[in-house]
Design a protein that fits this description.
- By secondary structure, the chain is mainly α.
- It has one domain: RNA polymerase sigma factor, region 2, helix turn helix motif (Rna Polymerase Sigma Factor, Chain: A, Orthogonal Bundle).
- Helices cover 76% and strands 0% of the residues.
């Protein structure tokens, strides 16, 4: 379905997207695959790259007004947000890997590792119980059952892509 919006500049679409979902959809389809490819190159993980691209657009929805008024170029802003999100993920992974290495180095005895984990069980239970039900399920599927984003979405009956964009 041609809307005529495809020919508009990013700046025009930003201004329209504040009240027109079709304008936002044009921006989404214009940049999503490029952001996903960029994040994939950084992370080497297609599922996480999809998450990064989607989160970038979630953040765009929160900044539409500011970007429209500031008249800043959209592409550099989008790629900077995606870059920052990917770097945060790499830091998180590095930190997690360091913790695993430190735990492994500190305890080569499986019984000691089990004891160490069990000493934090109540803290973990408290943190998990504080989560809303949907987030609790997501955390459980991702970290306890090692599911991918696509597998989680299938099991939860939702799409792995945020936000819901109408098809043009």
């Amino acid at each position: 379905m041609e809307t005529g919006l495809e020919e508009r500049s990013d700046q025009e679409l930003l201004e329209l997207a504040r009240t027109d979902a079709q304008a936002f959809a044009v921006l989404y389809f214009r940049y999503y695959r490029h952001l996903r490819a960029y994040a994939t190159a950084l992370l080497k993980d297609a599922d996480l790259a999809n998450d990064i691209a989607e989160e970038t657009f979630v953040r765009l929805t929160n900044r539409l007004g500011w970007l429209a008024v500031a008249r800043r170029p959209l592409a550099p802003w989008l790629f900077r947000v995606a870059h920052n999100l990917a770097v945060d993920e790499l830091r998180r992974r590095s930190h997690s890997q360091t913790l695993v290495e430190e735990t492994t180095a500190a305890s080569t005895d499986p019984d000691e590792t089990t004891e160490d984990i069990q000493s934090h069980v109540q803290e973990i239970r408290n943190a998990m119980s504080a989560l809303p039900p949907f987030e609790y399920t997501c955390v459980t599927l991702r970290f306890m059952e090692h599911r991918t984003t696509a597998e989680m979405a299938c099991q939860l009956g939702c799409t792995p892509r945020l936000p819901q964009i109408p098809v043009l």
